[in-house]
Amino acid sequence: GESVGLHLPTLSVQEGDNSIINCAYSNSASDYFIWYKQESGKGPQFIIDIRSNMDKRQGQRVTVLLNKTVKHLSLQIAATQPGDSAVYFCAENTSEKTSYDKVIFGPGTSLSVIP
Amino acid sequence: GAVVSQHPSWVICKSGTSVKIECRSLDFQATTMFWYRQFPKQSLMLMATSNEGSKATYEQGVEKDKFLINHASLTLSTLTVTSAHPEDSSFYICSASPSGDVRYNTGELFFGEGSRLTVL
After folding, report:
1. What is the pLDDT of residues B12-37, one digit of tens each?
2. How many angstroms separate the CA of residue A105 from the nearest CA in chain B?
């Protein structure tokens, strides 16, 4: 199968601090990017998305930044809470060479919030 | 958001048997569904793209005869793990694309809750 990577880095933050999770993507033709949150034993949950014609998008307590020049995405979580503890995946969606969307996941980052 | 349901959520089977996992889109039609496999502490790896009414497209390295995919209707795709072995034990996750449905953003995918397969 196709994936950006196989190993899971970890990030520990103090409750109330801001978290920044980074991701590098591989396909310069990707035009849609999504951040997902996955809790143990569950499927991925949509957090926020951004299209390639934007460089920043904000949601509730979350901000996604896109740097197409270096093919880099970041997810910023403000005032991190214990409930934010999970694995976070960036994903790129490309319809290049296909007539349908194809979503490829990055390696993921395990976020642990210290109370 | 839209709801995608997987069944069963977990299954235990003996080595050599076949197991079928269902993926249903409950409130939208999905011409395309995707099957992922996830090993512990790893990312989701795309196995195949399931297209309604046609053959699935498998990713490189995924055996199509081992992982049979059927997408017979616009709301149901099934993944059958044939002659399962302990190394097939994994978390299998499907997603569905409501492509063309104006209620959703272009490119948006919805994920099921996953099916955990344990092969003894």
Report:
1. 999 999 999 999 999 889 888 999 99
2. 6
